[in-house]
Structure formats: C-alpha cells, structure tokens
Design brief:
It contains 14 helices and 19 strands. By secondary structure, the chain is of the alpha/beta class. The structure holds N-(aminocarbonyl)-beta-alanine and zinc ion (ZN) (2 copies).
Length: 462
C-alpha cells in the first residue's frame, strides 16, 4: 500500500516546510517537495493543504487495565489505544507492575497478556518495581538486555502499596549505571503525606479537596531533591514522572544548572487544570483526585517556562481513568478515592490550543514534547518520533482549524466524565496512521483491535 500525503506543512522537532510525504507499507519512504510527479502510482492520496503533517504522538506515561485503589483503571489496551489514536497519539509506554511478592518477569507477562491481541496501536512497557532485592536487581538486567523494557518506576509515595526506601532506590539506580536502564521516580514524600492524611481525616476533613491539601508542594519538592541527590551519587540520570509543582521544578532546574542529568516530564492536567477544580460542588472534586494533585492557579506559568527552557523535557498524561462509581469509593474519606484521571485523548489538542496557538511554544517544540523527546528518552527513536525515511509510518495529519468540544458524551475513553467537560480546543487530527494503516479519519474509526504491536526499546549506552 502506497499513500501520498501532499501539500502539507511537514514539521519535525527541528524543521518546518511545505511538502509531501510518501508512506510505503509500514514505513515512511520519502519526504520532500513535488513528490506527486516523482513517485508514480499510489493507492491513496491525502491532500493536507492548510494542515500539518506530524510524527504520531507518543505518551510515555499511561496506566491501562491497572489494578489500583481497590479497583481497575477503566480503559484496557483496546479502548486506551483507540482513544489515544483519536487524539493523535499512536504509541504509548504503559507501566507494567511487579506483583506483590512476585518477579519482574511475572509483571511483564501479565502486561503482555493484557495488551496482546487488544491494542489498536503500538505500545511499550516500563516496569514498576515494588520489591528491590537481589533477584529483582538481576532481573533488571534481563529486562533491559532481552525484553526491551529499559525503564523502571520506583515510588517515594504510597507506603504499603508501591513505596520503596531510599536504599532500594539507590541500589536500583546503581544497577542502571551498569545496564543502561533508566529509573523513573514518583517523587512525593509518602510517609509524611500519610501522617497529614491521618490527621486531616481525624479532624473530619474528608472532602476531595483535602487530597490536595495533604500533599503540599514542599513534599513533592523534597522528594524530587532527594531522588536527584541519590542519582547524582549513583552517577546515573534520573527521570521524574508527573512533575506538578513549581517548587519541584525548581529542584530540577537547580540540578540541571549544576550539570546533573535530572530529567522531568509534566502532564497536561498540570498545565490546564488547577486546585480550583477540587472546589467544584458536591463530590465533583473527586474527578481530579490524582497524585501529585493539581496545584494552585499560577503554578502552570512556571511549568510552561520549564517547557520553553527544556527544564521540562516533555508532556505525558498519566492517563489512569476511573468512572464516577469508582471515585465514590472515597465518598466518606478522600484517601479512598482511586487516584487518576483520563488524559491521553486530549493531550495533543490541549497542547496545540494552549501552547502553539497562544505562542508559548512553536510547532517544532510541540513535536519535540509530544513525540520526539519521548521517543529519544525511552529508546524508541528513530523507529518512532520521526518522519525520516525508514521510520514507522505513525503519522498524524493535524488540522489547526479543527474545533473539538470536549465532553464525556463524545470522547472515546471509557471514563464516564471528562475533566475538560465543555472546553473547546482548536487544533486536532484529521487523519491518523499507525505503521502505514489509516486508523482514524476525523470521527471515523478505521483501526482494528489487536493491530498494535509491542515495541522493544533500546537502552542508554553506558
Ligand atoms: O494519580 C495517579 N498518578 N495515578 C496513577 C499512578 C501514578 O502514581 O502514576
Ligand atoms: Zn506516579
Ligand atoms: Zn502514573
């Protein structure tokens, strides 16, 4: 199958030009100007006049089919990758989980079972380590060398669930110094947060807003500072996931200014929502219960600055949707509300509308933070995150004039609410290709369950 996308504005993380792109089979085969005259017969031509042609979005932080908080996230790999594709994201890196008392291998096999035959577009895995011991440290080598799982998430939060102590974090970091893996850190001081939660609940402060008030920015900054220091001593890079608070960003900035390899992502919700959402009437604040929590209005200005100056490397979503029925688990105690919210479908449009259209970032930076940086950071590049000949034809034709009014009535995630309900964004995909297959055309779904493949990722060179 040969598809010519003609007359589009082709944008990479560095260049923008008016031109054409030829897809042959699963790969981009040619990019240039005046290709129509050069390439002969094609099976399909898409006129991208007035539109951008971009590498498919990569969301390196999702939780599909994840058991958490006494329930399971609402999107499985089928609905999760489908809603991602509707939003212009063609590859996700999801978090597999080492089962309690089990091995990393078991966690990996569990996640392969969840995804295989279901995913509609390509996917890769990080591994959440809840038990750092002799055997799991050895298993890290296996995952990096043989299984294409080259990053590991550890938590300074959620005592009794995912929390590991500093010595364990340090040992895992040292291991990545040998095998080229990357440690990803959830950085909040979980033990102290648990004290604050206990005290708040003891005072009868049980509403959703107390989720945010018991997780102050300083405790995110403290943990961020600590894990960066541990990585510095272990002489390895560290990647901070879902950075939310300007105080935590300041820790990353200071470390980077000293030449330390501290890398951080933020998520779209920290750029487009705020603490005010917890003050919505009734129990509606529960829709936004996630960790770290949304921060006070104004905080997002620092995050945008971080994105402009590359102290924040990229924007993910931490897509971890729950339905309102599940959120009700915490109706009498905010700490029982399952943590997480939907996001993967909205990310590209939110960032275009709030970032490119407002002039905060240009189209090249947009491509960088939504696709190329995640690909490079997590060993997917140049297979993904690029439109160069030979790359997978994960391509998005992006219409800067397409308006989308976000609503639970029309979105494609299985979550039964949308955190951006009623908001209109300008800019969205008109055509989405996954390895050369047209899977989304406007509102039409053309993809198929099971077409997505697991992508083995490369390690850093050590
Ligand atoms: O609230 C969140 N972030 N839920 C998903 C789990 C995590 O910590 O990323
Ligand atoms: Zn986390
Ligand atoms: Zn997460």
């Amino acid at each position: 199958m040969r598809t010519l996308i003609k007359n589009g504005t082709i944008a990479s993380a560095s260049d923008t030009f008016l031109g054409d792109l030829l897809i042959e089979g699963e790969k981009v085969s040619l990019v240039g100007v005046g290709l129509e005259k050069l390439v002969g017969n094609v099976d399909r031509t898409i006129d991208a006049t007035g539109k951008y042609v971009l590498p498919g979005g990569i969301d390196p932080h999702t939780h599909m089919d994840m058991p958490f908080g006494g329930t399971t996230s609402a999107d499985d790999f089928e609905s999760g990758t489908r809603c991602a594709a509707f939003g212009g994201t063609t590859c996700i890196v999801d978090f597999a989980i080492q089962p309690q008392g089990g091995s990393l291998k078991q966690g990996m096999e569990d996640w392969h079972r969840k995804a295989e035959g279901k995913a509609c577009s390509d996917y890769a895995f990080h591994m959440i380590m809840r038990d750092v011991n002799k055997s799991s440290l050895l298993e890290m080598d296996q995952l990096v060398k043989h299984e294409g799982i080259t990053s590991f998430k550890l938590f300074t939060a959620y005592p009794g669930v995912f929390y590991v102590d500093d010595a364990s974090i340090f040992r895992a970091m040292q291991k990545t110094g040998e095998n080229g893996g990357l440690i990803c850190m959830h950085a909040e001081n979980g033990p102290v947060i648990d004290v604050l939660i206990e005290q708040a609940v003891g005072r009868g402060e049980i509403a959703p807003k107390y989720h945010a008030l018991t997780r102050p920015p300083r405790l995110e900054a403290e943990a961020t500072h600590r894990v960066i220091a541990l990585a510095e001593v272990a002489k390895v890079p560290v990647y901070i996931v879902h950075l939310s608070a300007k105080e935590a960003l300041q820790q990353v900035r200071e470390a980077r200014d000293r030449g330390v390899s501290a890398i951080a992502e933020t998520c779209s919700q920290y750029l487009f929502l705020s603490y005010d959402n917890y003050e919505e009437p009734g129990f509606d604040g529960a829709k936004y219960v996630m960790s770290p929590p949304l921060r006070p209005k104004g905080n997002e200005l620092d995050l945008w600055k971080g994105l402009q100056l590359d102290d924040l490397a990229l924007v993910s979503t931490d897509h971890c949707p729950f339905c309102l029925k599940e959120k009700q688990l915490g109706k009498d105690n905010f700490s029982k509300i399952p943590n997480g919210a939907p996001g993967v479908e909205m990310r590209m449009s939110l960032l275009w509308d709030g970032g490119v259209r407002t002039g905060k970032i240009d189209v090249n930076r947009f491509v960088q933070i939504t696709s190329t940086a995640p690909a490079k950071m997590f060993g997917l590049y140049p297979k993904k995150g690029s439109l160069a000949p030979g790359s997978d034809a994960d391509v998005v034709v992006f219409d800067p004039n397409r308006e989308i009014k976000w609503s639970a009535k029309t979105h494609h995630t299985k979550a039964d609410y949308n955190p951006y309900e009623g908001r209109t964004t300008k800019g969205g995909p008109s055509h989405v290709f996954s390895r050369g297959n047209l899977i989304v055309e406007g509102e039409k779904w053309l993809g198929s369950k099971g077409a997505g493949k697991f992508v083995k990722r490369n390690a850093r060179r050590v």
